[in-house]
Design brief:
Rossmann fold, 9 strands, alpha/beta, about 260 residues, about 25% helix, globular, five-stranded mixed β-barrel, single chain
Length: about 260
């Protein structure tokens, strides 16, 4: 397009086709440290961007901020300047009682708003846990799912849904139960927007989320922000992206070409 994007303040040539998306701008540097030769190319509002390379392919890191609206802005502007594969790295609350603090959930579909509808066709009944930075089994051929794994639920009311008031008559807990029955195993605030915008713009997207609390049981207090298990999520996302890049190269296309097949 030859113009600098209004919010991200990036332009064509500064962004790779593959982009990692932490929510917190403060997490961009640790993610970028996994790349070769990464440098900061922009910082505006909640959006910080680095670009480097992974196995010789240009890869960027852009923070989305908190919630759907800022995530939608980031994804729209990234696609305008050439992004074709976007992977969120973040945290989530568990809806599946089998998930524990530090477990990782790889998300390929998410329920939007307050209804148990998914942003992509319902995936097979699968759950994958990844610990110690194991690479996610992403990729495949024609018709493949973007990033195989589980289904998440979208949450816009962070405090209200983290600690429901008794006066709500059990509505919030009933909604969590409905999402769990629909196959959702975790809840957070950005992935549904990412997947929806990606589907509309015909690019590839997914998320790697670290479990930090139990959304379905309520949270007595927020976890220590300095002790969140984000490093494992970063390592898994970068490892999976490395495998995806290799698969795309073997198929004779880039992230954009592969996403169109």
């Amino acid at each position: 397009m030859g113009e600098r994007q209004y919010h991200l303040q990036v332009e064509v040539g500064e962004i790779g086709e593959y982009v990692l998306l932490p929510g917190d701008p403060g997490r961009c540097a640790p993610v970028a440290a996994r790349l070769e030769g990464a440098r900061q190319v922009a910082a505006n509002r909640e959006f910080t961007t680095y670009t480097g390379s992974l196995d010789g392919v240009t890869v960027s890191v852009t923070s989305t901020g908190i919630g759907g609206p800022s995530t939608a802005i980031a994804v729209e502007e990234l696609v305008r300047v050439g992004a074709r594969t976007l992977v969120r790295i973040g945290s989530c609350g568990a809806l599946d009682p089998g998930l524990r603090f530090g477990d990782l959930v790889v998300v390929q579909a998410a329920a939007r708003a307050m209804a148990p509808r998914t942003t992509t066709p319902p995936p097979a009944s699968r759950r994958r846990r990844h610990r110690r930075g194991a690479g996610a089994p992403w990729g495949g051929g024609r018709g493949r799912s973007p990033l195989p794994g589980g289904r998440g639920a979208h949450n816009d009311a962070f405090y209200a849904e983290m600690a429901p008031e008794p006066s709500d008559g059990g509505i919030i807990r009933a909604r969590w139960d409905a999402w769990a029955r629909a196959g959702c195993i975790a809840a957070e605030m950005e992935t549904a927007t990412l997947l929806t915008v990606a589907a509309v713009r015909r690019v590839r997207a997914g998320a790697v989320l670290a479990v930090i609390d139990s959304a379905s049981e309520g949270v007595p207090g927020l976890p220590d922000p300095c002790g969140l298990p984000i490093d494992a999520a970063i390592d898994t996302a970068v490892g999976g992206l490395r495998r995806l890049i290799a698969l795309d190269a073997a198929a004779g296309g880039s992230g954009g070409a592969a996403a169109d097949r």
